[in-house]
Structures are given as structure tokens and as C-alpha cells.
């Protein structure tokens, strides 16, 4: 079943499913799957292991957040920490990231989250031409945005039996409960009209742009400014709230959905329905540059400020965890400070000496001192 953006790229996502058969007594469960043209083909060059859900309920979570593939040497650790901690505040128990290309500054944060069992990072190498930045004349990507739809559907099925609900969002998006303090209370309110109707398998949440090119809010704390907390700084949004399935994002019950798209669910199980969550109950805050001056004057929206103390506390605690990790201090200075492709050692100050003098955190010092020339057209495997 093809899924995703078609007609503009050479390749699109294709999902193949087949019915299993009942096992005979004593017969072992299948441990791998493959796709072959000839049923008699025994070479199985593309053998994929079967991922089985955990048997212990204690290893399951209520919400897993599936994130669009990391790309263009993604290196914005401020955004990463803010996004993860805010989602955890709302109820997220796990995150799945797909790593096409990342930079060195996000690595210690991913490592810390993975040690705590909060994050899974999947290597995501696409064997066809993908988007590049800056754009190159004549370059045509062969698949939509780093195989985004394939990654989202992989995450959907990866969460089967592991997560009660799955949230789909990008790193610059936050699904915000507008009248509640967490996702569970929000969904309970949105589901009241479905108590006697079809099973609510998909919750669709509308989106609005919080423009990062508009001035920052002057009423935030200095600590929020220092940590570059976009959700607290950028409180001007466009008046326009997009209609359902246009820039919407979803929360889904995995067993109720067969295929997910970027902004909608094209295939779901019979007997389930989509809940259109009204904007006064939940809104997707999309923080990005967006040039549309015509009919979208700014509206001040400080709905995230009611969580300001909790957000700052969680973010500061995460930086403390990473800064206390002694393994970060042992990173080779040349690997961090020497531009890619440049074999000359940098004569800049070492992170350790600078940190001792200023008392600043490791991550902040590395980000301040290092200026790397990054090739954004090739995948990396730094987080594998």
C-alpha cells in the first residue's frame, strides 16, 4: 500500500503486509521477515528481524513521541532539550528519533537520554538523493523529506504493544493542552462525545505558527533567555489556525491505525473514528520562520507561560545531568574544535580549562567555541 507524497518524487513509501498463519504445537515463532520476488528464493538478502512487544507491563509507556528524521547535521541542542522536556511534562514516556544526519553538540544529550531509557535513536540512511541545504541548482530529491512517511510508519509499528498512544510531531512543534495540564486530561475532555459512538482511534490537533522572526516576549526571566526557551520567548502567533488535516498532527492508538501520513491518517481500522480536537482544547504550536504577512496579523498568546517554572526547572535539571557526565569532558579537543575536513589542530581554548574559569556548562562552552563546517548532504552515524 503506497503512502505519503506521490507524483513529485521518484520514490514513495510502500508498505507490504501479509497474513500470518496459526502456529502448530511446538513450532517456533517467526524471528525474521523478508521480501522476495520468487517464493522459492532462499537467498534472503534483506532479512529483517521481527520486533516483538515487551511481555512486562512495567516496560510499556502511555505516550511515545515519534519525531521526523533528523537531518542537515541537526545540532540544535537547545531545541532538543526543550522539546523533550516539555513533552515529558505533558506525559511523554519515550521518544523515537531517526538519525539521517546530526552534529556533535546534540550527542551528549541523546546519550544521557538513552542511558535513562527515554530515547531510541534509529540509524536512518536513505540510499537515494535527498534534500540538501543550501539548495543546489539542478538537485532533485528522489523521495519526500528524508523518507519522512516511511519513518513515521516504522515508528507506528515499532510502538505496537509498547505504547498505549503515539504522538507525531517535529522538533519545532509542541502539542499543547490549552485547558488542561497534561495530554491525558486533554484527551478525556476531547473524547466525551464518543462515549457511545465509534472508538476514538485518532485525535487530530490543529496547528498555528508562532513566528520566530517576530520579536521575543520581554516578560520572561533571564534564565529562560539564557536557555533560549522558544516556547516562552516566542509568544506571538498568527491569527490563522489551520483547518483539520492541513498541518495538523495526531495522537493515535497504534492498534486502531494501519497507515499514518504527515498530517492525517489515510488508513485506520474499521469501527474507529477521528476525533477533531477543537483549538480551545489543544493546539499544535509550530515555532518557525514563516513569511505570510497578508492575512495573519500577530496575536499575543502566552498560554505556555503557565508552565514556565516547570519548563525551566526541567530544562535546567537536564543540563545539570549532561554537565555532570564526566565522559563529556574526555572528548578529544581536536575532534570537537577542528572543522570537518581540516586536519590542523585548533589553537582555541580547551573546553575543560574554559569551563573551570567561567563555571559554565560543558555543552554551552562547546557550542560557543566550536564553529564547524558541516556537509549537510551526507548521513552520519554518530548516534548509532
Distinctive features:
384 residues; alpha/beta; Spore Coat Polysaccharide Biosynthesis Protein SpsA, Chain A; seven-stranded mixed beta sheet; three-stranded mixed beta sheet; disordered N terminus
Please outline the major beta sheet. Answer: 7 strands, mixed
Helix content: 10-25%
Task: State the CATH architecture of the domain at 63-317.
Answer: Alpha-Beta Complex
Number of strands: 18
> N- to C-terminal separation?
29 Å
Would you tell me which CATH topology of the domain at 63-317 applies?
A: Spore Coat Polysaccharide Biosynthesis Protein SpsA, Chain A
Task: Give helix and strand order, one letter per element, not per position.
Answer: EEEEEHEHEHEEHEEHHEEEEEEEHHHHH
The helix tally amounts to: 11
Could you tell me the strand content as a percent range?
A: 15-25%
Give the overall form. globular
**Strand order in the largest sheet:** 7-6-5-8-13-10-16
Average predicted confidence as pLDDT: 83
CATH class of the domain at 63-317: Alpha Beta
Report low-confidence residues grouped into runs of 5 or more. 1-7, 328-377
Q: Which class do the helix and strand fractions yield? A: alpha/beta
Radius of gyration: 22 Å
Gist of the model:
The protein has 384 residues and is an alpha/beta fold.
Structure overview:
The chain is an alpha/beta fold and 384 residues long. It has a domain at 63-317: Spore Coat Polysaccharide Biosynthesis Protein SpsA, Chain A, CATH 3.90.550. The chain contains eleven helices and 18 strands. It has helices at 77-90, 107-115, 148-158, 183-190, 222-226, 230-233, 308-324, 326-329, 333-337, 351-358, 362-369; strands at 2-3, 13-14, 32-33, 48-49, 61-67, 94-99, 119-123, 163-169, 173-177, 199-205, 207-211, 236-238, 249-252, 257-259, 267-268, 272-277, 282-288, 298-300. The strands form six sheets. Strands 7-6-5-8-13-10-16 form a seven-stranded mixed β-sheet, sandwiched between helices. A three-stranded mixed β-sheet has the order 9-17-11. A two-stranded antiparallel ribbon has the order 1-2. Strand 6, helix 2 and strand 7 (119-123) form a beta-alpha-beta unit. The protein starts with a strand and ends in a 15-residue tail after the last helix.
Amino acid at each position: 500500500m503506497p503512502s505519503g507524497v506521490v507524483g513529485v518524487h521518484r520514490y514513495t513509501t510502500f508498505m507490504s503486509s501479509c497474513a500470518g498463519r496459526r502456529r502448530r504445537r511446538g513450532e517456533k515463532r517467526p524471528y525474521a521477515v523478508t521480501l522476495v520476488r520468487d517464493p522459492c528464493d532462499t537467498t534472503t538478502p534483506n532479512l529483517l528481524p521481527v520486533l516483538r512487544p515487551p511481555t512486562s507491563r512495567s516496560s510499556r509507556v502511555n505516550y511515545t513521541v515519534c519525531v521526523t528524521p533528523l537531518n542537515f547535521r541537526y545540532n540544535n541542542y537547545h531545541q532538543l532539550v526543550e522539546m523533550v522536556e516539555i513533552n515529558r511534562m505533558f506525559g511523554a514516556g519515550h521518544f523515537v528519533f531517526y538519525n539521517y544526519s546530526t552534529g556533535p553538540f546534540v550527542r551528549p544529550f541523546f546519550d544521557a537520554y538513552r542511558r535513562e531509557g527515554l530515547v531510541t535513536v534509529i540509524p536512518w540512511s536513505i540510499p537515494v538523493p535527498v534534500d540538501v541545504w543550501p539548495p543546489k541548482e539542478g538537485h532533485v530529491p528522489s523521495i519526500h523529506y528524508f523518507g519522512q512517511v516511511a519513518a513515521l510508519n516504522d515508528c507506528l509499528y515499532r510502538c505496537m504493544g509498547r505504547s498505549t498512544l503515539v504522538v507525531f510531531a517535529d522538533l519545532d512543534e509542541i502539542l499543547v493542552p490549552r485547558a488542561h495540564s497534561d495530554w491525558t486530561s486533554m484527551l478525556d475532555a476531547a473524547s466525551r462525545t464518543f462515549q457511545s459512538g465509534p472508538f476514538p482511534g485518532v485525535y487530530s490537533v490543529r496547528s498555528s505558527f508562532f513566528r520566530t522572526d517576530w520579536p521575543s516576549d520581554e516578560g520572561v526571566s533571564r534564565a529562560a533567555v539564557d536557555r533560549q526557551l522558544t516556547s516562552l520567548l516566542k509568544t506571538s502567533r498568527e491569527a490563522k489556525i489551520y483547518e483539520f488535516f492541513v498541518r495538523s498532527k495526531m495522537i493515535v492508538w497504534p492498534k486502531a491505525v494501519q497507515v499514518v501520513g504527515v498530517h492525517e491518517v489515510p488508513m485506520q481500522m474499521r469501527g474507529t473514528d477521528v476525533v477533531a480536537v477543537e483549538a480551545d482544547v489543544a493546539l499544535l504550536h509550530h515555532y518557525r520562520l514563516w513569511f505570510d504577512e497578508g492575512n495573519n496579523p500577530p496575536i499575543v498568546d502566552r498560554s505556555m507561560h503557565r508552565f514556565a517554572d516547570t519548563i525551566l526547572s526541567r530544562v535546567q535539571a537536564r543540563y545539570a545531568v549532561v554537565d555532570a557526565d564526566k565522559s563529556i569532558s574526555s572528548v578529544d579537543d581536536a575532534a570537537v574544535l577542528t572543522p570537518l575536513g581540516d586536519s590542523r589542530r585548533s589553537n582555541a581554548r580547551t573546553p575543560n580549562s574554559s569551563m573551570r574559569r567561567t563555571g559554565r556548562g560543558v555543552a554551552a562552552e562547546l557550542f560557543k567555541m566550536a564553529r564547524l563546517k558541516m556537509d549537510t548532504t551526507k548521513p552520519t552515524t554518530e548516534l548509532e
